[in-house]
Write a structure and sequence with these properties.
The chain has 157 residues and is of the alpha/beta class. Helix content is 43%, strand content 17%. α5 runs parallel beside α6. The N and C termini lie far apart (37 Å).
């Protein structure tokens, strides 16, 4: 089995829940490494952009298809909107803001999402854990139509 990497980041509004979520998932499976990319202390003046940039770059890794297939990002900010917008600025990142198991599963299987953005204001940590586990256990549907759609996301406009 391939090793999977989960990169976790937040801003100040998601900081406490990131800390709690990290404790819940850091040892979730022997073939999964979970890396907290920060912040490592609460800073009311931080920007969501910093966390999203760090996580997006980590997920892209060496920018090979193999690396991207086994790298996932989890971002937490107040609404999850800001981190989602920032992460999606990177070619190859498909970040989604999702709050239900069904939505997360669809984002992974049909839309090939590789970064899950969660609302620190609206989700409890137990729900976040369920969403992360659904995200990591769902696989992209290999059907041609879903592959085609995912590739089009990286086309220049």
């Amino acid at each position: 089995m391939e090793e999977y990497h989960i990169y976790l980041g937040s801003d100040h509004r998601g900081f406490q829940k990131k800390e709690e979520l990290f404790e819940l998932i850091k040892d979730c499976h022997e073939n999964v490494s979970v890396e907290d990319l920060g912040p490592f202390e609460y800073d009311a003046e931080d920007d969501y952009n910093d966390a999203a940039i760090k996580v997006a770059k980590a997920v892209l890794g060496d920018n090979t298809e193999a690396a991207q297939e086994h790298n996932f990002g989890i971002l937490i900010c107040g609404s999850a909107h800001g981190v989602c917008m920032q992460a999606n600025r990177f070619k190859g990142i498909r970040a989604v803001n999702a709050s239900t198991v069904e939505s997360v599963r669809h984002a992974r299987t049909n839309d090939y999402a590789n970064v899950l953005c969660l609302s620190g204001d609206n989700l409890d940590v137990d729900t976040m854990e369920k969403l992360v586990k659904t995200f990591c256990h769902s696989r992209p549907d290999p059907s041609e139509k879903y592959q085609r759609r995912a590739k089009r996301l990286d086309e220049e406009s």
